[in-house]
Amino acid sequence: MNLYLECLTALTPEIMVIATALIVLLVDLAVVQAKPAAHRAALAGAITCLGCSLAMIWVALMPCSVHVAMLAVSPMTQWIKLSLLLMTFFAAVLSWHERFTRHAGEYFALLLLAAAGLMLLVSSDNLLMIFIALELLSISLYALAAFDKASLASSEAALKYLLFGGMSAAFTLFGISLVYGIAGDIQLGFIAGRLRGQPVEPVFYAALVMTLVGFAFKLAAAPFHLWAPDVYQGAPTPVASFIASGSKVASFFVLARILLTAFPGARGMASVSDFLPGWAPILMVLAVLSMVAGNVAAIVQTNVKRLLAYSAIAHAGYALLALLADQRHALSALLFYTITYAFTVLGAFAVVGVVEDSGRQASLGDFAGLSRRAPLLSFCMLVFMLSLAGIPPLSGFFGKFYVFTAAAAAPPQLSLLWLVVVGVAASAVSLYYYLQVLKQIYAVAPAPSATWPRPAFSAQVAIVMLAVIVIALGCAPDLLLGKITSLLKSHPF
Amino acid sequence: MPAWTIYISFLGAAFLMFLPGDDPRPARVTALLAALAGLACAAMGIIECRHHVAAGVLTDVANAPWIAELGIRYHLAADGISLVLVLLTGIAAVAGVLFSWNVENRSREFFALYLALIGGVYGVFLSVDLFLLFVFYEIAIIPKYFLIAIWGSTRREYGAMKLALYSFVGSAMVLVGLIAAYVVAGGKTFDLVELAKYPFPAAFQNWAFVLVFVGFAILAGLWPFHTWAPTGHVAAPTAASMLLAGVVMKLGAYGALRVAMTLFPIGLHTWQNTIAVLAVVGIVYGALVALVQQDFKFVIGYSSVSHMGFVLLGLMTLTQIGLSGAVLQMFSHGIIAGLLFAVVGRMVYDRTHTRDLAKLQPMNLNQVLPFAAVTFVVGCAASMGLPGFSGFIAELQVLVGAWQTFPVFAVLAAVGILVGAAYTLRVLLKAFFAEGVVDAQDLPRLQPITAPERAGTLLLLAATLIIGLYPRILMELITPSLNSPLMRPLWKAGLR
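Structure tokens for the assembled complex are given below, as produced in the milestone run.
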């Protein structure tokens, strides 16, 4: 009895989110079906935001530390959930005024289900549960990506996402089954115990590779990134922003959790001189490929959403560096980096969405002269782009700096410095394409006949809030970092 | 007090950003007030810190924990060298605003970016924490890009992007070096004073020094990484080229001295000769290329490369006189290049809309714009290093220092000075004193020189003359600073 009660308490935020999803569906179906689409979207969006806020309040106020059955809830995961809910909240706000669908209820319900998937993902330490949560998330996202029924690109994106995703899920599941075969357990902590002292055998290595393939897909790390540009471009913009933010943060967190709690002994060595098999060399390959491929491909993009997709690939590469770093800084660097990245990219997509609302595409030329008509919006875009490029005093700079420092400090000292060099060089390249966007906004004159975006008030507030977050976390990283490190010190996971 | 230079500039930039309307008047008045306040703070900072400077110690300006996890502190401090450069920045900032008085197009944004750039530059000169220094260093990159890309002239987007990428690549190199040094020293602090005490292994220093030194020196126009400088200067609007040549190139030299040389003295020793060769090549090459340019602004752009070569050569001499000469040359070149760019960009180009020497030749500018002609003559005299101007003292000291360390290079650099005289006289003749139309009616009608231009000219001329005639004002700041705790590693490396 107590066990169930404990589980229920621990899962309350997830239950709240799922309940909200059902309420949204019901209200939309039963109460407002006859109303115009815009009203329905506003109502469904409002309920979604309310549900997220309630869940956030619950998470923030109810300290919870449970480790029963398949759940592992700690202040750390609660806190990650809080940020995930916040990202969902922003994604919902940005969806309010989108016109791509008449099925507002279904849209927001799926968004909430995806959020529930994210939350379950971070609150489990059982491989099977992790897989189920991952699927809940993925399937919701496939459907969300296809939501713009009028657009061929949206369907194509969703189909691509589904095919790639299904394939990689199969890989992950196969990898998990191999791990189970070797270790005889699917609980992360126990796996570590069983594997302690064992050498990395070929079967185990195969299991590692298979599991990592699935995650590399979710993170859009090269060479498993091919879906990302099409999905980011084709999917409705708020959905793309959600895929790029929340889904990424949760996946990175879980990946770190799996690698650091289940396979700490199988790290291997990534330095070229004394190579040892393990997950570190695999991550190293993924990181280098992502940083190089993402940044190089982004240079030639003319569509801003596609550009952001390639930049997302590159950023996945930087974040992987953090995972390779030494244990003490690895997680805090990873979390700081992914969370600040998520807020930045949410903001960037939000601005793109506003521009698209004025009947434009998201190609570079559509941004020409934006600063003349929408100075505040342009300034926010400036903040987001420069943060992605890693210019101080914005949060993207400190994130990258911390990741690079952590990677350089990975024992043995400076053995990963060459990876840092690759990262820094790639990041220097990236300034070029971010500046291309800003050049259009600030330096190029607008086309005379252009129509201009009138951003909805809610979207504008959300964008400004995101910009403030990005600036504040850049100027005072301790706001976030202090919290992360204190949590990590008291509750390793 | 010196810290206020930073805050005032950024506050001014933020204020301008939120100032409503397109009227240029409040924008430029705000910018002028902010620049003047910055200059005042710089001057007061010198007065305030003079006792500390004379005693050869650092004056802490601000010191507070910032990012505890990595041991990063918000630590600003000043010694004589940084104060000299802060003063230079103040003067250049005020002059730049005065010479941008005619910017009407999006002036609010122009001055906001301008002040943001200035704030970043002040910050670099005052930071002791290397993370903080790097932050300010990068903050300065983006405003440069926009100033050139939006308000520039010839091939502005190309020039702006080239400058931004060169700067960013340079700072990327510096970043790798800094992170490596931080990790090797135990990962506890980015404080320059603390790090400078750490004995980095020689093998590490040998590569880290090149990385960090070259990374910074790219911005100082080190040959062969100087190519951003002429294109950037030419593309930039007047005020931006004044700042580029006047202070931004000094950021590079300052970083090379403050960070690369003090952190890695052994590496410095290894690479001393190589870099001295590059510096001399820069001096001679820059001067020779300037000799054959047809674009008025390119001449000044290449001359900047040549003059900055003296700074780098001075640093490499590792003699007291050479180092103080290098710092003085930074100040002197900042003022003189600012003056020359002001004449070319504001007085001539904004009126005639051409910088082609062949087209300027028949215009008889010495009759049409006598004020510009006189200013340019004086500026040229200073630039050639005639006694009585700041350039003379500075380059003489560098040459004396170079003579002690590498006599051959001193001779070659002296050749560079001769070529310098040649291109300066050539451009002076072609642009202002060529035999052109004699008939007064055929002279082009140009807008007369305005009051802000006169004020800016006077400010810059006064600065170069005062320092030229009475260099002790700055030397009293620079010389004791060579003994400050920050410079101790250089003494170990063989500074004489």
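The CA atoms of residues 49 and 119 of chain A lie 16 Å apart. Chain A has 20 helices and two strands. Further analysis is deferred to the final report.
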